[in-house]
Amino acid sequence: MRERRDKIPKRQFVLLLIIAVPLFAMIFLxxxxxxxxxWYMHVIYPVIAIVLSFxxxxxxxxxxxxxxxVAVLLLVRLIVLVIIRKISFSKFLFRLIRFxxxxxxxxxxxxxxxxxREDFYHRNDVVEKKFDxxxxxxxAVRFIDHxxxxxxxxxxxxxxxxxxxxxxxxxxxxxxxxxxxPNGKRKPKLMMFETVYSKMGVxxxxxxxxxxxxxxxxxxxxxxxxxxxxxxxxxxxIAKESEANLYGFVVCSSSNDKKIRYSAYVSTIRxxxxxxxxxxxxxxxxLASTIRPEIIADLRRNREHWLAARNESLxxxxxxxxxxxxxxxxxxxxxxxxxxxxxxLISNYDILNPSP
Length: 356
Known about the structure:
Elements: H1 2-5, H2 10-32, H3 34-56, H4 63-83, H5 89-110, H6 120-123, H7 133-150, H8 159-173, H9 194-200, E1 204-207, E2 212-215, H10 224-235, H11 241-253, H12 258-279, H13 284-288, H14 293-309, H15 312-328, H16 341-352
Antiparallel strand pairs: 1-2
């Protein structure tokens, strides 16, 4: 009974607010200033990435997954305690504010400020091309031709070699991509709940709290290099999904390994096909027919592979949650941002992508 009547002293609430309010104000300030966010991601974030990735690489399993489990359990415990009146409402409120402050501040200052950066065009001094049907068709034809040239069988693949090769590509291209290097270490971690993520259709994710990369081993071999390069892009401070797709494509297509180059094209061509269907519907059949049948077969196999694991309820829930998460972080298009890589490719294809 005594604990139920206990209240948090006002001075503790005041102290918490003195700490929390300025931190939230700083996050808000970063959200208003792309220049300040760029400075943070180039000067402060690399140090944070080095420290967090060093800690996370000490253990072979995902610390991020464990972090999420612990955070959820702590929150549930807190709610239960106040419901059964084991703690007073003032204690509940105090602990909830403290909990939210730790999570939000850790997320944004650990990585999330990347959402407030300048877009790719401004960071790389590239002029964004306005949509033009003829320009898009010309790009699509070239892209399909390059994809056809890059086709190779990916049945046998050493993932350790793939990781080393993609890391080498990032090291060679980091100046042209305007990213800091080495920016910590990038060692892919296994997902603790891989089956659940497979049911949601999640092929990979970046854990910002502990600076960890995760790639789903359920993925087919030919998609693995691109997924890994995409998640590495997030670790380098690239928040937008379209830009991470672009970086993944550039890094993989620049590789000397033909399997990695093929992964870049087969993983990206579906976005190109979707835009052809959307913007050039009368050209779709003729353009799609020029794609090698082996590539079409891989695309169909990949779709059937993920559909076989998909749980509709879990997948829809994940889509809604992630869409809301992206929109909350100033990506207005939400999940549709993934497909916006095509516009980036059209504006940058000749600049960043070597001929196959």
